[in-house]
Write a structure and sequence with these properties.
There is one protein chain. The chain is an alpha/beta fold. It has 18 helices and 14 strands. β9, α14 and β10 form a beta-alpha-beta unit. Bound molecules: nicotinamide-adenine-dinucleotide.
């Protein structure tokens, strides 16, 4: 099939590449000429395990191309996937300008039947707005070209995006046009060979499903974080509690890890956007309000612990910080807890020496020449002369450090672990003072 992917970011690039991998003819378009230039020179603008090799293979096979040419993009695909950003607007609602611009562009250029697929996470009702935007452009041109609009929210996780896309738990399709439904079934058939994973529903339910999924996961995280904070006071060990409840199949193991709060490009904005929709309709989701408030507070939980141990004035202090990305296996720092932790420490006069396996180039871009942060070549280098280690992202390489060397490198033997990576007794046995989230 001929497919156009509009927006070549985390979702568009992964989706486009995976669709090419199963044999489709995919053209990815982006308004960001820098991104397209990197891709056309054989580079990859984001870090995603396995992506570079898959892109190279499909580009070499002639199934995957990248362009900034919007007209060529409209002309190419019978299926036009919209995978542009939907960042939060000032009021918390999802900013729809990029989605609607993409839709209008399709309307301005299309000369034959198109299926327009909303892949971006968009508020309920967006498919109607996309349909109207295209209709308006067609009217202006005085043509009546047929088209259908479909909702197909994406559930991939950064860091495991290829695996998620190639072997999805489910594929949600919201559609009411038979021709479009048949095409969507055909596109996704190669990804569900052992059993049907396609959930066909009406458009509005599909749109809401995506927000419901992210809101539920964010809720689990905030719930565990609040419980961990309580365990801190009660002298209980949240790790035992996690195992005690995760083993209940009604609860399950996923997303029960307490930490420094959720971040990234999806949970924070999707929680806000869903709440905005609900509030506008006079039905604010009380749980989500609490989820968000708990998360904001949680991002500063480690800083509270640092201040309780070292005092409010951190002038002249230096902290080694392991992990800048909002989670492992990505260089994405959007709404990463590291940003708030670094800002709060800097506001108290501290300096930070950071290390992250892949996100340091992104951090350099984010922080520019800010004097309070420098970068180390290795995790151990970051520790030299630091007053404490702060663990913010649970990268695998942080899981089993040489604790003796770690203690020797630090000026003070202090570890503030925002991801509960270490066994408290083991760390203390080597003479480190250890602070975690919810473990005594
Ligand atoms: N990142 C994730 O893990 C993830 C997972 C599921 C869903 N989503 C959703 O998918 C959407 C995209 O997210 P992302 O993380 O890929 O964003 P991103 O910012 O990485 O990529 C969006 C891309 O769209 C491009 N763009 C904007 N307007 C355009 C236009 N008119 N024509 C062509 N390109 C245009 C931007 O330049 C950018 O490269 C969002 O709605 C997001 O909520 C993201």
């Amino acid at each position: 099939m001929k497919i156009t992917m509009i927006g070549t970011g985390y979702v568009g690039l992964v989706t486009g590449t995976c669709l090419a991998e199963v044999g489709n003819d995919v053209l990815c378009v982006d308004v960001d000429a820098r991104k397209i230039a990197i891709l056309n020179q054989g580079g990859v603008p984001i870090h995603e395990p396995g992506l570079e090799a898959m892109i190279a293979r499909n580009v070499a096979a002639g199934r995957l191309r990248f362009t900034t040419d919007q007209d060529a993009a409209v002309a190419h695909g019978t299926l036009q996937f919209i995978a542009v950003g939907t960042p939060p607007d000032e009021d918390g609602s999802a900013d729809m300008q990029y989605v609607l611009a993409a839709a209008r562009n399709i309307g301005r250029g299309m000369n034959e039947f198109k299926v327009v697929v909303d892949k971006s996470t968009v508020p309920v009702g967006t498919a109607d707005r996309v349909r109207a935007a295209i209709a308006e452009e067609l009217r202006t041109r005085g043509v009546d070209t047929p088209y259908a609009v479909v909702s197909n929210p994406e559930f991939l996780k950064e860091g495991a995006a290829l695996e998620d896309f190639m072997r999805p738990d489910r594929v949600v399709i919201g559609a009411d046009d038979e021709r479009a439904i048949a095409m969507m079934r055909a596109v996704y058939a190669p990804f569900q060979r052992n059993h049907e994973r396609l959930l066909l529903m009406d458009v509005r339910s599909a749109e809401l499903t995506k927000y419901a999924a992210n809101a539920m996961l964010a809720t689990r995280i905030s719930f565990m974080n609040e419980l961990a904070n309580l365990a801190d006071i009660l002298g209980a060990d949240i790790e035992h509690v996690r195992q005690g409840i995760g083993s209940d199949p009604r609860i399950g193991w996923q997303f029960l890890y307490p930490g420094v709060g959720y971040g990234g490009s999806c949970f924070p904005k999707d929680v806000k956007a869903l709440q905005h929709t609900a509030t506008e309709l006079g039905r604010p989701l009380q749980i989500l309000g609490a989820v968000e408030a708990a998360n904001e507070a949680q991002k500063l939980r480690l800083v509270e612990k640092i201040v309780a141990r070292l005092g409010p004035d951190l002038a002249g202090r230096c902290f080694a910080l392991w992990g800048l990305a909002f989670k492992p296996n990505t260089d994405d720092m959007r709404e990463a807890p590291s940003l708030e932790i670094i800002a709060a420490l800097a506001a108290r006069g501290a300096r930070i020496v950071a290390y992250d396996p892949v996100a340091m180039p992104e951090a350099r871009r984010v922080f520019g020449k800010a004097p309070h942060i420098t970068y180390a070549a290795t995790p151990m280098d970051a520790l030299i002369g630091a007053d404490a280690l702060i663990v913010v992202t649970e990268w695998k390489e942080f899981r089993s450090p040489d604790f003796d060397a770690l203690r020797a490198a630090l000026k003070q033997p202090l570890v503030f672990d925002g991801r509960n990576l270490y066994e408290p007794a083991l760390v203390r046995a080597v003479g480190l003072e250890y602070f975690s989230i919810g473990r005594p």
